[in-house]
User: What shape does this take?
Amino acid sequence: MAEYVVEFGKDGGRVEPDGRLDAAAFHRNHQAIWAVLERFLAGKSGDVVEAGSGTGQHVIEFARHSPDITWWPSDLNEQHLKSIAAWRAHAGLANIRAPLRIDLADPAWCPQMHDGSGPAKLLAVFCANVIHIAPWRVAEGLVAGAGRNLRADGRLFLYGPFKRDGRHTAVSNAVFDASLRDKDPEWGVRDIEALQELAASAGLVLNEIAGMPANNLILSFARL
Ligand SMILES: C[S@@+](CC[C@H](N)C(=O)[O-])C[C@H]1O[C@@H](n2cnc3c(N)ncnc32)[C@H](O)[C@@H]1O
Assistant: This one.
């Protein structure tokens, strides 16, 4: 069964003295995710926001492979923001900015997106394993912000388990979905068609579905 973590550091995972947290799933999924992101990012430069960065490990790994991209990690959980900052200091890479405190339930995201101190128009927004472990309004805020902040050739990438035509793509995802809903009725594996409808309201269209290990997908959205 797919596992999920609401708060890293309280899940029995490693906690370093400087606050760096470790997500077990990161070690299993980062290569497959990067293979998809790289196809789009290769040869490009610009700003990329990761929404709901968690420990911060994905941003560090991806920034290492893409020196011409400026990465902006974000989260709203204090321990996670601390972990992201600690991983950033530990990596010492010039192309990772300090984490932004973004509550995705707020379509405005954060003041830095509006006051000139944050990223420029975004080449991409990447969000892994967030929208099914959060109320639907988080998906709404994520997509609204992406629609507003992506540049003309930008992409929104969503990684995680998804339903197709209201149906689970694997038994393990159905079991996972039930466990999420049991924990919080507002959580749950999202339907691709519902996300397409939401994306359309933000001027975005689904342009690719990439299969990932363990019955996960990456959905890629471009401007209409
Ligand atoms: C399962 S973790 C995934 C973390 C990371 N993306 C990964 O794949 O390892 C979900 C993350 O979403 C964040 N999150 C939950 N609700 C959020 C919200 N409303 N705004 C921003 N982040 C949120 C949590 O703090 C957590 O870091």
